[in-house]
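Recall from the previous lesson that a structure prediction takes nothing but the amino acid sequence as input. Here we apply that procedure to Transmembrane protein 127 transmembrane region domain-containing protein from Ancylostoma ceylanicum. The sequence below is the only information supplied.
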Amino acid sequence: MHCLFHQSCHLAGFQDEVMIRKMKWWSKIDFSESNFYGAFFHLLSVAMAICSLLSSEWILIEEPAVNSTTSTDNSELFFDVSRSDHCTNIGCRDFWRPARFGGFLDNKGKTHIAFHSSERVLLDCVTPMVANLFYVLIALCFVIALTSSLSFIMNLLPPPSGFLQWLKRNTIFEMCNMLLTLCVCVVALIAQCEVARVRQDCDVSLGGGVFMVCLAGMMCFFAATSTLRHS
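The prediction returns the following tokens.
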């Protein structure tokens, strides 16, 4: 009984010490340094980055009306494409789950690439290079969402001192996100060129997913401006 009483007293003392440390940390926070406008802009940046990750319209492909029927007839002659989908758009959503590639030769000796994802099958649209580029885009968008989330917290609960305060006052996270946004645009343009190389008879353009990331970068710029004015 004496041992149990001693352990319970030790546990209660440890909990009290943790509560005291939390109260000391909470008392060091100067809420007058909170930047609610910056936090709001970072929240919008997180939302835009997540929406871009869930978007399937990063690259839009418009097939010519005249050639589409011809290509369909040829595909029925050379290969069974009854289970394939029309490749009108590509986005990060297509690469969240494991996918695989396949290939075949038609009766004319032309090579075709088949991309099998969990939701659809695309022919002559997604190459391994395009898939690798989209994996890079997913990583960049994830980093943007993560750093914007950290900046959102630091704008609501400003760090009292030290390295985190230096990061906040000098808008390091915001500048990194704007640089990452530029990298996303460059990688997306490379992916667009690769898809245009494969689909030479189609009009290939950038879609809403890229513009969502650009909006996320713009929100980071507004947050940085608000932080500099606030400090």
